Amino acid sequence: MDTIRNLFWCLRIPLRTHHRSSVQSKALGLLKKRAQYTGPHRPSSRYLLGYAFITYPLRFSSLVPFYTCSTFHMTSWTAKERQVLKSLSTPAKIQDFLNALHYRVVGDNETCSSPRTVLKERKAQCIEGAMLAAAALRFHGFPPLIVDLEASPSDLDHVIAVYQINGFWGALSKTNHGVLRYREPIYRSIRELVISYFHEYFLQTTGAKTLRNFSRPINLSKFDKQSWETTTENIWFIPEYLLTIPHTPLLTKSQISRLRKADSIEIKMGEITEWPEKKFAQEKKS
Asked: Fold for domain 79-269?
């Protein structure tokens, strides 16, 4: 029954008949039929989910089996929060919203705020932005997925929210610099997506390229019991979890030994920021 109730929510079926589209009316008819009929031809939950997948391909296009994760979890957003999230109806709009958030400098009054707190304060650093993006994607039917980009010990890690459209991966990212940003859904695998960040992932002080490993997509629904989307407390349990999971190497040792440093033009380009920030000895563009 939870599957049916969550499907009803995902289809956003209005209560008033004259506000419903023909597709929504048909979906509602199927829901009612399933609830009332107990015969051998009763529509199954998976049939109704398949109907939603065909009708709303952008919301249900991820290859991650949506019936095995908590994509349809009901989050207790306030009316104001729902209004904001409803307006972020595409990945591009979510990215524009992330860009408009004030950048919270890593190392300065460091936090790990929930999406609710970020929506309230309009401030975020990289993982906070990624989690908000994941929550916004989930609001529109995507699984809430993030990927951890792991750097060498001399640099800082970065976290992105990822999604799929028609089987191709894209990414959303909160950063203060001109790189490590949004990625169009054109990548065939997570590794291919992560590789697109490699050349601009360097230390601003030395030009050394530092991206080394990446995690599998992590479905944040595993933290629903801790209310990761709406708690007012810091959610350090998510970055702490990222430290415990396996990461896949991007490069071999011989490839690392042959890496060319970013040149002076690239380093100069990396100095461009959206928001003023303090200078750190070990600075990463995230």
From this structure: C8orf32 fold (3.10.620)
